[in-house]
């Protein structure tokens, strides 16, 4: 368990460090002074200055940071500062962090495609050469599935009723039909979890809550798309694009349902503890599944960071766009105050989600 926690923390710190590396490399490319590149947050454990930059390791393992000369004070127009650089360079430096997340996802998907293949969702009408399987991508809270110990990532192999009726599962509609026909009866679901096969008894609900199925799981028909190593970059690029496209579609669907006051049983907002729990479960399914999750997290972080909110890269980008339109920068005091307010709001949101995560765990 301790080793798992270390792996999860190391993974998150590495993700955030590579994000900051994107800012760092572009700043260096344009001759902008980077005062410090830090792993973790102060107080400092160790630091070494090389030329203009201090490279440090810090006590709080909450990510990483770069301190760029003149980034927080746009009135600081000295040579080599962020604020004195051309507008297009500042925009590219800001975008560099988000771009690095997409590079991470692309490299992971490429590596997996060439090594063991990547899982891709397909419809029930798919009839290609790869063998499809039905995988559980979500489990509703307090549902029969959760109480039976069914987990996200489990693969359905077989369903069997008390009357000895059984089916091999490879289509979502087939699974849903079987469960519907046996509501209120005990069925046995054979699951593949990692390398293990499990027989799980469960009773589908007769009257499930609105928006949830009788079992309380989200299902997807999936294939493992394998390719030759020299074609792996194409698969990596395609998978990165498809995952990027899917994220805003999911967000729009969730927001639409919330506005219409429709239930979203398969949606769960998590903080650092909840994310760590999800990563821990993915790790139990093997390194491939864990790396796949890391790539998806990287894409989510890239898109989230581009939201036009102060304290995010997208907020800084918004200020730069306004500067381009106005032909002069926004008052530093206004930008700093907006950033401080949103930073506090994000901290409060993080604390709220963390408390919620801990409540779910216990």
Helix percent band: 40-55%
Order of helices and strands: HEEHEEHEEHEEEHHHHH
Query: What does the overall shape look like?
Result: elongated
Alpha carbon gyration radius: 24 Å
Distance between the termini: 17 Å
Report strand %: 15-25%
Quick overview of this protein structure:
This protein is α+β, with helices and mostly antiparallel strands and 362 residues long.
Furnish the topology, listing elements before pairings.
Elements: H1 2-29, E1 34-50, E2 53-68, H2 87-115, E3 118-121, E4 133-139, H3 144-148, E5 155-161, E6 166-168, H4 172-181, E7 187-193, E8 196-202, E9 217-225, H5 232-259, H6 272-284, H7 287-305, H8 313-326, H9 332-361
Helix pairs in contact: 1-2, 1-6, 2-5, 2-7, 2-8, 5-7, 6-7
